[in-house]
Amino acid sequence: MCLLTGGGYAQFAAVPYQTCMPVPESLNMAEAAAIPETWLTGYQLLHQIAGVKKGDYVLVHAGASGVGSAVIQMCDLVGAKAIVTVGSQEKLVHCAKLGAVFGSNYKVGPFEKEIKKFIQHDSNGLKANVDIVLDCVGASHAEQNINLLGLDSKWVVYGLMGGRVMDKLNMGLILGKRITMTGTTLRARTIDYKGALVEGFSRDVLPHFNAGTIKPVIDSVLPLKDVAEAHKRMEANLNKGKIVLDCQAE
What is the DSSP code string of 144-212? Predict the structure, then answer.
């Protein structure tokens, strides 16, 4: 299995050897296909950029997505606590089964107050803020993110599904809380960067698939001819985990 640079909607693809990984023996090919892009993205966000550590409260937006489902499990591996925002009760249940300690349905109302309340209760009053926000939403959640982040916290932006431009940004809170805000992508990175990412992931995470500690989360497997249906499902925000295309089904 491999972190592709593109061209994955095909039976064959040429790939850089540095980005290849062995398929865990316990997994089939569809399960293997659900790993590289999402899990390596999550590993990059959590470890290489945010520097997650045991005891951290990590706010994961789109918790039921492919990346979100992976991040929840990787938080559990290091003893961090994943808190999620999702768009339905069904997705809250999904995330809880993967190990999320708390979740909020952003469609019901603001998530900031109930997340703070949970952390205060969970930490016996020692904390009321998150240590890391993994943000694929952007503008629509930004104000609540800033309010939730604590001292010396990390805000990692890797998507803009909720908009690019904020009406206002309280820079004073970023300064006062010493928040580190970072934007990141993966597709455009160099082969050397991706190779180092694959090496770290293969060392720190990959063995846990065979151990059964973690698992790829597959929403559905569709033949390549139904690619339009796959995209419609994803665009409608219906998927829980990764949608896999089977390029051999024809």
Answer: HHHHHEEEEEEEEE---TT-S--S---HHHHHHTT-EEEE--STTS-HHHHHHHHHHHHHHTTHHHHHT
Distance CA 155, CA 183 (A): 8
Report the alpha-carbon distance of residue 118 to residue 85 in Å, rounded: 13
Which 3 state secondary structure label does DSSP give 217? coil
Does the pLDDT of residue 197 top 70, yes or no? yes
Q: What's the average model confidence in pLDDT over 104-112?
A: 96
pLDDT value at 231 more than 70: yes
Tokens, residue 213: 């500690």
Residue 167 has pLDDT above 90, yes or no: no
For position 250, what pLDDT does the model report?
59
Phi then psi for residue 189, to 5 deg, are -70, 160
CB 126, CB 150: distance < 8 Å: no
Statement: residue 249 has pLDDT above 80 = no
Rounded to whole angstroms, what are the CA distances from 243 to 1, 57, 228? 16, 28, 12
Residue 28 and residue 180: Cα distance in Å, rounded? 39
Sheet holding 180-183, edge to edge: 102-105, 81-86, 57-61, 130-135, 149-157, 180-183
Q: How far, in Å, CA of 74 to CA of 81, rounded?
A: 10
- Average pLDDT of the residues of the chain: 95
CB 21 within 8 A of CB 132: no
Superfamily (CATH H level) for 1-250: NAD(P)-binding Rossmann-like Domain (3.40.50.720)
